[in-house]
Amino acid sequence: MPERIEERPFPQVEVVDMKPVVESSKGGVLSPVLIQAMAQTLERGEQCILFLNRRGFYRLFLCCACGEGVRCPNCDLTLIHHKDQDRLMCHYCGFAIPLVENCPGCGHPALKAFGYGTQRLEEEVKRRFPDVAVARMDTDTVRKKGQAYAIIRRFAQKEIQVLLGTQIITKGYDFPGVTLVGVVAADLSLCFPDFRAAERTYQLLSQVAGRAGRGQRQGRVIIQTFNPEHYAIKSALGFDYRLFYEKETGLRKQLGYPPFAHLISIRLQGNHKEPTSRAAMDLAGGLKRTLASWPTRGKEITILG
User: Fold this and answer.
1) Do 52 and 185 meet the contact criterion of CB atoms below 8 Å apart?
2) Each residue of 60-85: pLDDT tens digit?
3) Per-residue pLDDT tens for 17-64?
4) Are the C-beta atoms of residues 71 and 182 closer than 8 Å to each other?
5) Looking at the whole model, is its pTM more than 0.85?
6) Structural contact between residues 15 and 237, judged by C-beta atoms closer than 8 angstroms
7) 12-17 sheet: strands from edge to edge
């Protein structure tokens, strides 16, 4: 959207580099910048929204020196920690490595695992602001019919000062009292193991930023990230979708991702692990033998996993 309704100004967007925050002894979920901004906002009688797109267990390994995640050498996607096997694995091609201590990118022994979600965020907000009404909105708190509406209604009536949650709270709500939006961990969506991760991060950041400053006061958006130089973050800073499009299409063309190629997902599902695994292996083997018999087209198609 080139402009906001009633010609209201876009919110001021700023990025907080979380690497020095985590390295300090006071490192936590919330940065000092965001804590101070929340205190000032609440003191003025205004409201805050905190966005964290993760509710369950999720271990993402990030380097506190360079901010990069551990990536697959084949797919350039972030490797995900599988707790049962204690390995880092690629969800696209099946590449796996044991847990590493040093960052493969910069070599520093500064890899750190992150696994917090909205529940831990709620605890920290309540600990820092004990006299403030806080509500959490994710699929755990809105399972029953009417629960989501009840939270939204209380927030609209200013019975709740701080609303935190997952992607549910980024939708097109209009709360004139919200002047501060905090994106607690932009890297969780940025490093999701999917080639659309950067696109979805830019969409989410643009969407959640639009919740701030919809009343008379200009809004403020604070994005916490370990990778402030990433093009998705920098594009969201200036609401510059053209810059994001140019960067993203260039990378996708280079790596052979859609829309410059087609992906087909074949999913096998069963009640027992071993026979289901054997069926998947047999299917992959049959597909590879078929492609090997195609002199031209077979070389253009790759079987992943």
Assistant:
1) yes
2) 677 777 777 788 888 777 787 766 67
3) 988 887 665 556 889 999 999 999 999 999 999 988 775 444 567 777
4) no
5) no
6) yes
7) 12-17, 220-225, 178-183, 47-51, 162-165, 134-137
d(C-alpha 43, C-alpha 28), whole Å: 23
- Rounded CA separation 28/305 (Å): 37
Distance between terminal CA atoms of the chain? 40
Q: How far is CA 237 from CA 14, 30, 68, 169, in A?
A: 7, 20, 19, 20
Please state at what angle helix 241-255 crosses helix 197-209, rounded to 10 degrees.
170
Residue 285's alpha-carbon distances to 95, 265, 289, in angstroms, are 18, 16, 6
d(CA 222, CA 235): 14
Convert the chain into a string of H (helix), E (strand) and C (coil).
CCCCHHHCCCCEEEEEECHHHHHCCCCCCCCHHHHHHHHHHHHCCCEEEEECCCCCCCCEEEECCCCCECECCCCCCECEEECCCCEEECCCCCCEEECCCCCCCCCCCCEEEECCCHHHHHHHHHHHCCCCCEEEECCCCCCCCCHHHHHHHHHHCCCCCEEEECHHHHCCCCCCCEEEEEECCCHHHHCCCCCCHHHHHHHHHHHHHCCCCCCCCCCEEEEEECCCCCHHHHHHHCCCHHHHHHHHHHHHHHHCCCCCCCCCCCCCCCCCHHHHHHHHHHHHHHHHHHHHCCCCHHHHCCCCC
Q: Which residues pair with 69 in a beta bridge?
A: 62
